[in-house]
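User: quick one, sequence for these C-alpha cells?
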C-alpha cells in the first residue's frame, strides 16, 4: 500500500502535463463494507463453531491428562519401575496428542477462515471494481492507509454498499 501512495505521488507532477485526462481518486472503507456483509457474519459463526469444537475436544483431552497424571502421582510410590515408566509414557502420550491437536486446530481454523473469507473478499473487490468503472475513477484506495483526506475527497463506500445491496 505504501508503494501505491508513492506511485500516486510520482504521477502528481504529470497531472499538469496531461490535462486532457482527469484523474479521479475515491476511497472506500473496505473494513466497514466487509463487516456489513451478511456472509461475513455467517463465516465468522462457522469459524467460531469450529474453534469451539476443537476447544471442547482439547478440554476432554485435558481432563483425561489431568486424571492420568493425578493417578500416576498418587500411585507412583507403590508401582514397580516398569509400570511406572509405562504410566509416565501414557501421560506423556496424552500431552503430545494435546500439542498435536492444538497445531492441527490452528491450521484447520486458518484454512477454513481463508476458504470462507476468500469469496467474500472477491465479491467486495468485484463491487469496488464495478463502481470504479461506472463512476470513472482512476484509483480507489482504502482510507486505513491514507494520512490525509481533504474535504473534496470522494467517498465511494456508499456506492459500493449500494452495489452489494447493503445500507
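Assistant:
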Amino acid at each position: 500500500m505504501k508503494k501505491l501512495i508513492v506511485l500516486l505521488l510520482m504521477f502528481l507532477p504529470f497531472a499538469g502535463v496531461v490535462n486532457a485526462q482527469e484523474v479521479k481518486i475515491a476511497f472506500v472503507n473496505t473494513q466497514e463494507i466487509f463487516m456489513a456483509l451478511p456472509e461475513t457474519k455467517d463465516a465468522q459463526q462457522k469459524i467460531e463453531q469450529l474453534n469451539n469444537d476443537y476447544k471442547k475436544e482439547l478440554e476432554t483431552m485435558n481432563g483425561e491428562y489431568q486424571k492420568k497424571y493425578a493417578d500416576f502421582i498418587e500411585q507412583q510410590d507403590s508401582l514397580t519401575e516398569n509400570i511406572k515408566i509405562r504410566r509416565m509414557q501414557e501421560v506423556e502420550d496424552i500431552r503430545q496428542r494435546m500439542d498435536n491437536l492444538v497445531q492441527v486446530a490452528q491450521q484447520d481454523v486458518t484454512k477454513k477462515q481463508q476458504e470462507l473469507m476468500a469469496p467474500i473478499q472477491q465479491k467486495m473487490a468485484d463491487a469496488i471494481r464495478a463502481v470504479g468503472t461506472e463512476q470513472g475513477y482512476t484509483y480507489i484506495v482504502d482510507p486505513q492507509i491514507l494520512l490525509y483526506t481533504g474535504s473534496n475527497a470522494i467517498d465511494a463506500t456508499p456506492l459500493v454498499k449500494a452495489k452489494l445491496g447493503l445500507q
